[in-house]
UniProtKB/TrEMBL annotation:
The keyword Signal does not apply. GO terms for molecular function: oxidoreductase activity. SUPFAM superfamilies: Flavoproteins (SSF52218). The keyword Iron does not apply. Signal peptide: none annotated. Residues 1-158 form the NADPH-dependent FMN reductase-like domain. InterPro entries: Flavoprotein-like_sf, FMN_Rdtase-like_dom, ISF_SsuE-like. Keywords: Flavoprotein, FMN. This is Flavodoxin family protein. Pfam families: FMN_red.
Length: 191
């Protein structure tokens, strides 16, 4: 079993990545293979609404000039997907939006490629706007017939500077419980 996590932060190794790594560590402890993909520094852009994915139905984005098809392949191979975003102006980052729109359209054009995989959103926030980010990510999972995994609180960690989120005790606990719950769900999806 494998879980792939995407950090949609523009900042490498920041709070979003640390939150995701914390959840992934629990999954690894439960014997699940994991991978973290950080979009920071990668070429990525939004959907151009060409709808060629619906014409071709080849499981790929027709605009093959950035990291999106690599991300689609990683999502296809995984049993679970974690999608993390920092809060930017009370919403998801542009990188996260590009990932959701492009991977989401490829999925829909091909009969819901990620159907019944487990999914969970993860949010880094300094102060306000995290719930909208969480909702936006969950919309990606829910329209794609995925199984959304919860935790002991909404999947949010609080911090501004890089890795400051480590001192948000409740946020870190929420990530550990999220990892445990995703491992539990994956075990049952498989059996
Ligand atoms: C462009 C931009 C917009 C931001 N907007 C918000 C916001 O609306 N609310 C908030 O609480 N924090 C906001 N922040 C702070 C980040 O959400 C916070 O620093 C977060 O921990 C960053 O995660 P990262 O380290 O993974 O990049 C913003 C940061 C940036 C760069």
């Amino acid at each position: 079993m494998k879980v792939v996590a995407f950090s949609g932060s523009a900042r490498k190794d920041g709070n979003t990545a640390l939150l995701l790594k914390t959840a992934l560590a629990e999954l690894e402890a439960a014997g699940v293979e994991t991978e973290l993909v950080q979009l920071a520094g990668k070429k990525i852009h939004g959907c151009i609404a060409c709808y060629k994915c619906f014409e071709k139905k080849d499981g790929r984005c027709a605009v093959d000039d950035d990291c999106i098809n690599e991300c689609v392949e990683k999502m296809k191979e995984a049993d679970g997907i974690l999608l993390g975003s920092p809060t930017y102006f009370a919403d998801i980052s542009a990188q996260t939006k590009a990932l959701i729109d492009r991977c989401g359209m490829v999925s829909r054009a091909n009969g819901d490629l990620f159907k019944r995989k487990a999914g969970a959103g993860v949010v880094a926030v300094r102060r306000a706007g995290a719930m909208r980010v969480f909702d936006s990510i969950n919309n990606f999972f829910l329209i794609g017939q995925m199984i959304v995994v919860g935790s002991s609180y909404w999947n949010i960690g609080i911090g501004r500077e890089k890795e400051e989120v480590a001192s948000d005790e409740e946020g870190m606990k929420t990530m550990r419980v999220l990892g445990e719950n995703m491992a539990w769900v994956l075990e049952r999806i498989r059996s």
